[in-house]
Design brief:
The chain has 447 residues and is an alpha+beta fold. The chain contains 15 helices and 16 strands. The protein has a five-stranded mixed sheet with strand order 2-1-3-4-5, sandwiched between helices. Strands 14-15-16 form a three-stranded antiparallel sheet. A two-stranded antiparallel sheet has the order 6-7. Strand 4 and strand 5 form a beta hairpin.
Length: 447
Amino acid sequence: MNSKIRTSHLERRAVVYLRQSTLTQVESHRESTDRQYALADRASGLGWDKSQISVFDNDLGKSGQTTTGREDFHRLMAAVGLGEVGAVLALEASRFSRSQADWHKLIDICALTDTLVIDHDGIYDPNDFNDRVILGFKGTWSHTELHGMRLRLQGAKLNKAKKGELRCSPPTGYVYDPEGKLVIDPDEGVVAAIKLAFQQFRVLGTAFKVMRYFCINDIPFPRRRWRQKQIGTLYWGPANLSRITTLLHNPTYTGTYVYGRRRCINVIEDGQIKKVKIQTLPQDEWKVIIHNAHEAYISWEEYLSNCERLKQNSPVSLSDGCQRTPREGFALLQGLVICGKCGRKMSPRYHGNGGCRAAYECTQARKQDGNMGVCWSVAGAAIDKAIADHVLEAISSEQLDISLAVLSELDDQAQEADKTWQLRLERGRYEADRAIVNMTQLNQKIV
């Protein structure tokens, strides 16, 4: 038995800690998992009774970059801090943690409670200076190794992306052909739904109205999933705002290959990485842009116009002077009334039961200068009535012709919706015919 292992250590538990970063590693790299479980036999060989050996394996499939979500690591730290553990065993330092802060915190607690650290290389006493140096180097090397692996993987991905060969999950409306090239989905129903969404955005102007158009007309929206065991599986469901805005913001539909539109930012709270935030980058910071890489649904210019329109539709008040979409309310001239004193836009304010009385107020000076007063305020009823009367007086035969043209456009939209339903009916008939043929063949085999 090693001289570092004393009776005081053997009287306490030996904890074997297991961890692998992903569930894929747990399923595919069974040899590594078996080696970690074998540490229980090593603890038994070093003198611990089998009843005193605990195996913590609930962190299999969880990343070691942070302790968030790793319940067994917290159990281990608590048991060591209470002096219940004589030794902690892991295959290597990276199994405990990839973070130097978490690694050194564990070493400090082990030193305070006289707990040994055991890996496949040896037995270490955190209170021994030489062992403490080696443990510190192991933690540093684990962190350095992770950094090096990340750089190599990211460099390889970027190099392949610059050639337009890095394959990612394609957006709905595209699939990969047998040669690995991105092509338009062969399902006509999927293509019709995607084109209808872009067409309706040109007419309606907002993503919410496009979503509402699909829902009111009971038109399902397609989605292909690319997870394991669901690769390329097509699902139809109701359109939602997130899917419509994702469609409009995706430059892939312009026939452009893009890489590096987003980046991950670690959110640190109380010295720990609590979550990873996805940040969308401006276009001039995208790493790879290759135009005309595949067939397109819309032009690049229309995509830029759509993005600008979505930005203008944002209800958030910005200081760039952009026109924003008015929100709900009784006021007729939201975002259009200009203050006669300072020239800034006035905001609607509602009073009375249910907000039935509207007024226009200029509060921009208060927001910018810290002034608690209102620059100008005026009742909205008189202004709204005057504008409404003026608009009704201005209606002429030309305006009626425009209204008829709008009705004709609505009729065209109804025909597009009917086309989508016809494609669904055709797909249903095809699947029914195929089921009948399969049933007939099965009956013939039985006979």
